[in-house]
Design brief:
0% strand, 65% helix
């Protein structure tokens, strides 16, 4: 009879589900915001940024999704320094959700405190994306806890995702030099944020599958070697 296949350890399954949950929410967020706003408004209207959907009927989706990502990241436990950086990233994600942006709000409708909150939002968002790039470029490309390095194709994929996040940050910052009319027409911040969120989500989904495979039978304790067979009586 074939031995029953070993199941991955429960802690590996938990970490895999956390990574999968973080990545799935990240990938779905831009699509849900745009499509949800389209359904409610009955016309396709792209805002200047993903954060701008806070000021629409999609506020609860935006805040709930970012808070869910934040809780996932805070609960994420794998090893040092992944745990610490995950906690910091989770706090930043919650801050992005609870401190709304002032981008896209009508001129003259924001107070000094609103602008201060908007600055907190922008700084938190930039720091969050930078940390997510660190996960892709540094943490995901290291050997796992058993010392097994990721496959070369996986390392390339993580580096591409991290590079796209950094590129999105740079382009979003550079777009502030464009005239206001051009920013409103081209919506560079929206596209840069969408690119970064997709790259972040894809990397975490890929890493969840890599962890699940690594936690399979190869990680299980090997069967003890049998000694030389005893001679059979003649």
């Amino acid at each position: 009879m074939n031995p029953e296949p070993r199941k991955p350890p429960q802690d590996a399954v938990t970490v895999r589900h956390l990574r999968l949950g973080i990545g799935a929410v990240g990938i779905a967020l831009p699509v849900v915001l745009v499509v949800g706003h389209l359904v409610v408004a009955r016309r396709l209207t792209l805002l200047d940024s993903l954060s701008g959907y806070y000021h629409t009927e999609m506020r609860d989706v935006f805040v709930g999704s970012l808070c869910a990502v934040g809780v996932f990241l805070i609960a994420y436990r794998y090893r040092w320094p992944d745990d610490a950086l995950g906690t910091v990233a989770g706090v930043l994600a919650v801050a992005v959700a609870l401190f709304p942006t002032t981008v896209g709000t009508p001129a003259g409708t924001t107070s000094h405190s609103d602008r201060t909150v908007g600055v907190v939002h922008q700084v938190s968002a930039a720091a969050l994306f930078a940390l997510l790039a660190v996960f892709c470029l540094v943490l995901f490309t290291r050997p796992d806890r058993a010392g097994v390095p990721p496959r070369r194709s996986a390392v390339r994929f993580y580096r591409v995702c991290g590079g796209l996040i950094l590129l999105a940050i740079v382009l979003a910052l550079a777009s502030s030099q464009l005239p206001a009319d051009a920013r409103h027409t081209l919506k560079p911040v929206l596209w840069c944020e969408t690119l970064a969120v997709f790259a972040f989500g894809a990397a975490w989904v890929a890493k969840s599958d890599a962890l699940f495979r690594a936690a399979g039978p190869a990680d299980a304790a090997p069967e003890p070697a049998l000694g030389p067979a005893a001679p059979t009586p003649s």
